[in-house]
Write a structure and sequence with these properties.
Radius of gyration: 20 Å
Helix content: under 10%
Largest sheet: 9 strands, antiparallel
Mean pLDDT: 76
Structural class: mainly beta
Strand content: 35-45%
Order of helices and strands: EEEEEEEEEEEEEEEEEEEEEEEH
């Protein structure tokens, strides 16, 4: 594979793009019971206001799950297990076994499972807890996606304060404000401002048109950040239509990966629209990244091996914040999607409740065909319901 570089990307446990069931307890006044659901924790020391690289999700509940959809050739799962707890792995509906003999030790960054040899494309991996002895526990730290070998790679970073590249809306409503980064914040080269943008108004939007194969969106996640929707090219992705960026501890995750799209065509321009779904909950923007790369089709062998061999970081991006990113695929709508327009409003869950809260798609939206967008959302609501059936 001479002349190529292996791109590996990691999704931190705190990213809202991961799906946990049962859902974690999001209440800072309640100590979550790790044996009744997932318990998110921040292990930062010294009174720091940030939890970047110090978060984890704990559970000892038999049957608890965490799922991720991605575009690539493999996935690794890192954390720790105690007292005989095992993690069962399902890839695209196929059971691959468990993590027998792995993950015991003093570190929370043990390799629990490696799924490799997948064909290059879209996949969904579900990790399911199989409880061991009484009070056995799983500590989940992060999952690393093996995207593939790239023939070429180019990365563009866009500062969230660059209003020449980003459009904050709706126009003329002045819903956005500027806030200082938290102490010790680490940002990639290309982000020159020490501030981020935020809005706590329902209907506030961020719009970007771009060309590239991968799109990443970063903004702080903390207790008062809430529900938001991401739409690309007028369609919603295969993960839940709505994400929730709230964390149940007092610290903030400054470099929080809030949105990610991979496997995009480089032959056309793409449009991304991010919308705040709640009043008095914050939608934030720190920076965006656009990747332009060409992956080798022979990266995977065409089937999941379930191997637990050591991981390879290869020559992919090395920025520490960049490594906290999941790879998520977007589906293209079928040709009959226009026929759903008339019934779309019946099943879109986030239709605005008040006339003074602008809809996600309006005649003023940069995305031209609003009815097509609504119809696409209807279709992907159906996809989302099928996704939930995994649990």
């Amino acid at each position: 594979m001479s002349g190529s570089q292996l791109i590996t990307i990691t999704v931190d446990d705190s990213s809202p793009l991961l799906r946990y069931t049962p859902q974690p307890v999001f209440n800072t006044n309640v100590s979550p019971d790790a044996y009744a659901a997932w318990s998110p924790v921040c292990n930062a020391q010294g009174g720091t206001s940030r939890c970047d690289d110090h978060s984890a999700h704990l559970t000892g509940l038999d049957g608890a799950k965490v799922a991720l959809s991605f575009y690539g050739i493999g996935l690794e799962f890192y954390g720790n297990v105690t007292l005989g707890l095992r993690v069962q792995v399902t890839v695209d509906g196929n059971l691959l076994g468990d993590n027998s003999g792995l993950g015991n030790g003093d570190s929370n960054q043990n390799l629990l499972k490696k799924v490799d040899g997948l064909s290059l494309g879209q996949h969904t991996v579900v990790f399911t807890v199989q409880a061991g002895a009484d009070r056995s526990l799983l500590t989940f730290d992060y999952a690393k996606v093996i995207v593939g070998h790239a023939k070429s790679f180019n990365r563009t970073v866009i500062d969230g304060n660059d209003e020449q590249s980003l459009t904050y809306g709706p126009p003329e409503q002045h819903l956005w404000s500027t806030w200082n980064n938290y102490d010790g914040a680490v940002v990639p080269d290309g982000v020159t401002n020490k501030t981020f943008r935020g809005s706590d108004k329902k209907g506030a939007t961020i719009y970007k048109k771009f060309s590239g194969s991968t799109f990443l969106y970063y903004g702080p996640c903390y207790t008062d950040t809430g529900s938001y929707t991401i739409i690309i090219d007028g369609t919603a992705n295969s993960q839940p239509l709505e994400y929730n960026a709230s964390v149940p501890y007092q610290q903030v995750v400054q470099g929080c990966l809030r949105g990610y799209a991979g496997g995009l065509s480089t032959q056309t321009q793409h449009e991304i629209l991010i919308s705040n779904n709640q009043d008095q909950k914050w939608l934030t923007m720190n920076w965006l990244e656009i990747w332009d790369h060409e992956l080798e089709e022979s990266s995977g062998s065409g089937g999941g091996s379930g191997s637990t061999a050591g991981s390879s970081n290869g020559g992919g991006p090395s920025n520490s914040i960049l490594s906290k990113a999941p790879h998520i695929f977007f589906l293209s709508p079928p040709s009959y999607i226009h026929q759903l327009a008339a019934k779309a409003s019946e099943i879109i869950p986030w239709t605005p409740e008040h006339s003074d809260s602008p809809a996600l798609m309006t005649s003023a939206s940069p995305i031209a065909d609003s009815m097509t967008a609504f119809a696409s959302l209807a279709f992907y609501t159906f996809i989302f319901r099928q996704f939930l059936s995994v649990f």
